[in-house]
Each structure stands twice: as structure tokens, then as C-alpha cells.
Amino acid sequence: MRFELFIAARYLRAKRRQAVIGVITAISVLGVAAGVASLIIALAITNGMRRDLQSRLLGSTAHVDLMKAASDGIRDWRPLVERMRHLPHVTAAAPGLYGQVLISRGARSGGGLLKGVVPAQEKTVTDLLQTVKSGSAAPLDNPAPTPLPPVVFGSDLAENIGAGVGDTVLVTSPQGELTPLGIVPKYQRFQLVGIFHSGFYQYDSSYGFIRLTDAQRLFSEPDLISVISFKVDDLYHADTIAREIEQAAGPGFQATNWMDQNRELFRALALERVVTFIVIALIVCVAALNILIALTMLVMEKTRDIAVLMSFGVRPDQVRRIFLAQGLLISLSGTIIGLVLGYGLSWIGGHYHFIQLSAQVYSIDYLPFAPRAIDGVLVAFVSLAVSLLATLYPSSSAAKILPAEALRYE
């Protein structure tokens, strides 16, 4: 062990003539540990929120959507879908027809968004039909007309209207039929055959799936679709691929991608991460002030010892390094404790999901944790750097002690 580090470690372990210095040193270690652990946990939560939201979004929605710029829908869509399916970077494509409806069962009703799909193709671009928890989505695969067409609802939507698997629901479309009395809303009874639960409130509370042919009859849109959904081979270049799809489709089409549709959400999460880091880093700054106070008081207590060392030939720069090493040891101890505590609690939270959230507010139903090694490196660097800055003044003061002045009255 180097001489400076040996003396610094001895000073930390030695009994104090003034007990308050030992108390402040302990508080400094605990403060650094609390700040580091809080930063690790906070960053793990923001990473987890981003990861889970992105994962559920990508599982619930297509990577790219192609629509007509006008609102008249896409006609002659079959050859277009087949042609788009063979474009570079496109791995799957599926047609769909959206429509806002009123869903009723008895005295209870609520608004919803029904999507007419070809189930075999829809399952290649989204995972919602594969998250059915009650009943089954298999009846959607049967193209034969039935007296009560099948429908699949999100779990929260089904709960809001009080419907269960096997129940009959009334779906009313605002795109009605023209009669001598004006436009009369069109309605159709459906049988609820399945309930899906994606864990993403936006979809669980408002989405429903029916067969494309049933949707075309309900919305009075024969052989027409409103969107072609795509799955691509590179999520993070979906914007570039969307432009290529738009150009390949020809004039009058407009393509959007998952990044554009959720840009504000992920921008808010990134800003929250930065703000969280800055605010919680103040805990480390407070702990660094405690280190400054503890070392300043220690220099005052050890003035005679420093003078004796310097009279034996210890240079001022060595004295400076003694107290720099002491501050570094305090910071290093707190940082290690904080890292162990932060990663330990983050692992427990991520493994057991013991903190539940309101899905209506946060879109997900539990608090996710996703600790990353790079965050630990960044937090440790910030902690050690701030603590090192706090040791500059007391170490410089110790190096300026004059042995003759310090020992004059001893």
C-alpha cells in the first residue's frame, strides 16, 4: 500500500478526540450510498418504463401503417397488399378496416374502436389476438356467415360494459343508412367469443376485433379497407422504410410509423430520465458537502500530526494526497454500498413486480425495473467525481500547514 493511502486508511479507522467527526464521516458514507442507490433505482424505473411501453406498443400495433391521404379508404386493395408484401425490409402485411362504434349490453354501454381483420394475416403484424385470456379468437378464422358474428374485446372494455365470453352485445355504427327520415345508425348484434389482455390500457379499454367482411357490412363499406399494416425487419429504421413503402404505393398514400405515432411519449420519458438524474444527484452533492465538512474538521484535529509528518520529511503534495485518498475512500465505500443496494432492490422489483400501478394513468399495470450496467458506471463516475471535488479544499489546507507554527505551543 502506498504511504499516502496507508495514512488515510489509518486516519479513517482511528478513534476521534471529537466524536462528531466520526458521526459526520458515517453520515457522509450513508449519504453517498443513499444517493447512488436512489439514482440506480430511478434510472432502472425509467429504463423499465421505456422498455415495457415500447415492447407493449410494438406488440399491440404495427410498425408501419399505410393509408389513403383522403378519407375514402383503399379500394382494389388485394393486389396492393400482395405487392407491398414483397417490398424490401417488409416481413408481413395485413389489411384492416377501423370504425368508431357504440357497444351496448343491457343498460351498460361504451365507445370502442372496432377493427375488421383477416385473422391469419393480422397475427403476423400484431400480437393482440395472441393475448386472448378468456375464450378464443379461433371463431374469427371461420369465414362462413353466422347469425351472430364473432367479436373479440379488450379486457377493460368487456369489464366496462359488463360482458363475458358467450354474451351477446349490440354494436351501433354512426355510419348508418339513408332513409326518408334521414340517416339512421346501423346496428348489428355480435357474440363475444374472446377477451384479450395486452397489459396496455389504451388497447385493453377500447379495442375490439371482428372479421373484415363483417366490418365492411357494419360500416357499409363493401370491399374497402382503411389501412394496410406492416411489420418490418428493422424497428429503428421504420421511418425510412415507411417512406419507401409510401413511394412504392404511389400518389395519394400516406405512411406513418410507430416512432412518429409515439414520439411525444418517448420524448417525455427521455426528459423525465434527465430530470430524475439531476434531482436525485443532489443527494450525492449533499453527501459531498458532508465529506468536505468531515475532512475540514479532521484537518483541524490532525494539525499536530500533520506538522510532525512534515518535520520528518513528508512533502506538502504527499499530505495533500493523504486527504484526497481519505475523501476517495469515503466516497468509494458509499458508492459500493449504494450500487449493491440499488441493483439488489431493482432486481427484486423487476423479478416480483410487487409495486402495482393504475393502468388508466400509467398505461401499464405494474412498476417495471430494468437496471443497466452502463448506468452503474455513469453513477459511480459522478459520485466519485463530485466527492473528489469536495476534498480539494481540505486537502489543500492541510498541505499549507507550517510545522513550526503548528508545533510552537506543543
What brief labels describe this structure?
6-stranded mixed beta barrel, single chain, elongated, 2 domains
Walk me through the structure.
The chain is α+β, with helices and mostly antiparallel strands and 410 residues long. It has two domains: 3-58 and 264-407, no CATH class; 71-251, no CATH class. 53% of the residues lie in helices and 20% in strands. It contains 16 helices and ten strands. The protein has helices at residues 3-13, 19-60, 77-84, 119-122, 155-161, 201-204, 212-218, 238-249, 258-261, 263-301, 303-311, 316-352, 359-362, 373-390, 392-399, 403-407, and strands at 64-68, 90-105, 108-117, 132-135, 150-154, 168-179, 182-196, 207-211, 227-232, 253-257. It has a six-stranded mixed β-barrel. A hairpin with a 2-residue loop joins strand 2 and strand 3. The chain is elongated, with a radius of gyration of 33 Å. The two termini are 31 Å apart.
